[in-house]
Write a structure and sequence with these properties.
The chain has 13 helices and twelve strands. The chain has about 375 residues and is an alpha+beta fold. The longest helix is centred in the last third of the chain and has 22 residues, at about 260-280. The protein is globular, with a radius of gyration of 23 Å.
């Protein structure tokens, strides 16, 4: 038997944009986007004022400006975001050591047993949000439930500056009523495919057999079959093992000269070496990512027999991959990533756990 866990997903509200508004009072209450305003720029984060106009992260700056002509672009300051993220993480650690950061602005916390001896995950989430506000001046939202999957969905429910608890006895109904697009991990392509199969809600998904779902969605089919039944046994892992490390650059103008490309790859390799040194890792598989001017994407990889982390060796293999075949068009983005890292061997295989018996306890 497997005891039910109490999981909190904390998600900062419009984090980068909120930090900029916090530090610069002139930006408060205005539509702002963190990111580049050039033709090639991309929005990293948008304030809630900008979101009302349909501006969102990963959107091209040109479209964002078209949607919201009064949009103010602000350059990202990652050192500042990291500094505040660290402060927030220290608050999490006051409650539990089982903290799994997903990025600078979100994390899972397992508070089944916690340092405050508080049996209510709902009250802990409330307290953490209040403390974040007090220590940083920023708002956070939270989702609370029996597993990471449901907690993540729930944290989006009452945004901004809200929280939602899905108690054990509410899980089934909550998931059945949920639109399929709201399921974490179901993107536009998968959602469209599900619509074509008559799956619009969790209830529709639940009516499909595991065999039907694996036939149509491969390995993910089993995942969908389980999560809609409230089964998701992934634990909160305080030390998430990095699977790959990379960097990429989008250019202001398309480039077709290989000499220019090599110059850019050198800068990228330098950045990767810096990150590898900081993370104390090395890798064996080098992947070159090329995005052409027509937005088509190509990757070329090579695996060697030893671990590398130096700029020179990374660049040498990236060059080899660049010359592997002729470019089919001019290039708008180049990236290099290193995988097959020397952390992989440390990863423990997930234990096959017995599916949880749904025990009811105070949330």
């Amino acid at each position: 038997m497997h005891q039910l866990r109490k999981i909190i997903h904390i998600d900062m509200d419009a984090f980068y944009a909120s930090v900029e508004q916090l530090d610069n009072p002139e930006l408060r209450g205005k539509a702002i986007a963190v990111g580049g305003s050039s033709q090639r720029g991309v929005v990293s984060a948008a304030s809630y004022e900008a979101r009302k106009f349909g501006v969102k992260s990963a959107m091209s700056s040109v479209i964002a400006k078209r949607n919201c002509p009064q949009l103010i672009f602000v350059k990202p300051r990652f050192d500042r975001y990291r500094e505040i993220s660290q402060r927030i993480r220290e608050i999490f650690l006051e409650y539990t050591d089982l903290v799994e950061p997903l990025s600078l602005d979100e994390a899972y916390l397992d508070v089944t047993e916690n340092k405050k001896g508080n049996p209510s995950a709902t009250l802990i989430a409330q307290e953490i949000r209040e403390k974040i506000k007090e220590k940083t001046g920023l708002n956070a939202s939270a989702g609370i439930s029996i597993n990471k999957f449901i907690a993540k969905i729930a944290s989006d429910y009452n945004k901004p500056n809200g929280q939602k608890t899905v108690n054990p006895e509410e899980v089934e109904e909550f998931l059945e009523d949920l639109e399929i697009r709201k399921f974490h991990g179901v993107g536009k392509v998968t959602a469209d495919k599900m619509y074509s199969l008559g799956i619009f809600t969790g209830k529709d998904l639940k009516q499909k057999t595991e065999e039907f779902l694996t036939d149509h969605f491969g390995k993910s089919g089993k995942h969908y079959y389980n999560v809609v039944r409230g089964i998701h046994l992934s634990e909160v892992k305080p030390n998430r093992i990095r699977k790959s490390l990379g960097a990429e650059r989008t250019f202001n103008e398309n480039i077709s000269s290989e000499i220019f490309m090599l110059e850019k790859l050198e800068n990228i390799a330098e950045e990767i070496e810096r990150r590898l040194t900081k993370s104390k890792v090395a890798g064996k598989t080098i992947t070159l990512k090329i995005k052409y001017s027509d937005f088509s994407l190509q990757t070329r990889s090579k695996t060697i027999s030893y671990f590398i982390s130096s700029k020179e060796l990374i660049l040498e293999i990236a060059k080899e991959l660049l010359y592997q075949e002729k470019m089919k068009d001019s290039v708008r983005l180049l990236g290099i990533s290193l995988s097959n890292l020397n952390t992989d061997k440390a990863e423990e295989k997930e234990d096959k756990k017995e599916i949880a018996v749904q025990l009811k306890f105070e949330f």
